[in-house]
């Protein structure tokens, strides 16, 4: 099975700037984080941002690429495996979902503080001004198109509207679940109580299995007609 690739080696200054941007954006978001704050936390000169990344947008894109490149490469490798395995028939929905979900679970839950931080940064992006969504589109556009085609093959006959609703709900469930798991130790006690039933951090395999099973059921669910 394909595994997440290690991030490429970075110049020490680049790494410090990316680490600082990630830490600040996880708390304040992109719009709420200034380059001056990033350089102060990184302990480097403001001019070095322009030298290494060109602009704030370039810094944000590099920050996202560092985490999302390995995830998306693994997703596509897993999807290729599913396609080869079922070359003569339809692709099972659960296997397509596992190819989409597993890489994010591995990145978020198997990389300590860096993984948890990534999940928080990614969660913040969806509350940013719409103009910042260009970063997500640039990084994930090709991968999304390939998975869209796989979902259409796994669930033939769905209308575009039904498929869109199912994908939105599935991505929301996965993102929220991983975010909550990454923050278990920091949540207020009243919120922790129902989650404590998990009895410790579950393994990657368990998280993937539960999210795939739940998402597959939701994507197959019949929706009553509304008039």
If you had to describe this structure to a student in words, what would you say it looks like?
The chain is mainly alpha-helical and 227 residues long. The chain has a domain at 67-220: Tetracycline Repressor, domain 2 (Orthogonal Bundle), CATH 1.10.357. The protein has helices at residues 12-28, 35-42, 47-53, 56-85, 93-109, 112-125, 133-154, 160-182, 189-195, 204-220. Helix 1 packs across helix 2, helix 1 crosses helix 6 (112-125) and helix 5 runs parallel beside helix 8. The chain is elongated, with a radius of gyration of 19 Å. The model has no long low-confidence stretch (mean pLDDT 86).
Helix and strand layout, with pairings?
Blueprint: H1 12-28, H2 35-42, H3 47-53, H4 56-85, H5 93-109, H6 112-125, H7 133-154, H8 160-182, H9 189-195, H10 204-220
Helix pairs in contact: 1-2, 1-4, 1-6, 3-4, 4-5, 4-7, 5-6, 5-8, 5-10, 6-8, 8-10
The gist of it:
This protein has helices at 12-28, 35-42, 47-53, 56-85, 93-109, 112-125, 133-154, 160-182, 189-195, 204-220.
User: What structural class should be given to the helix and strand makeup?
Assistant: mainly alpha
CATH class of the domain at 67-220: Mainly Alpha
Biggest sheet, open or closed, and with what strands and sense? none
Quote the distance from N terminus to C terminus: 47 Å
How much is the radius of gyration in Å?
19 Å
Overall shape: elongated
Strand content: under 5%
CATH superfamily of the domain at 67-220: Tetracycline Repressor, domain 2
- Total helical segments: 10
CATH architecture of the domain at 67-220: Orthogonal Bundle
Q: How many strand elements?
A: 0
Q: How would you state the average pLDDT, rounded?
A: 86
Low-confidence stretches: none
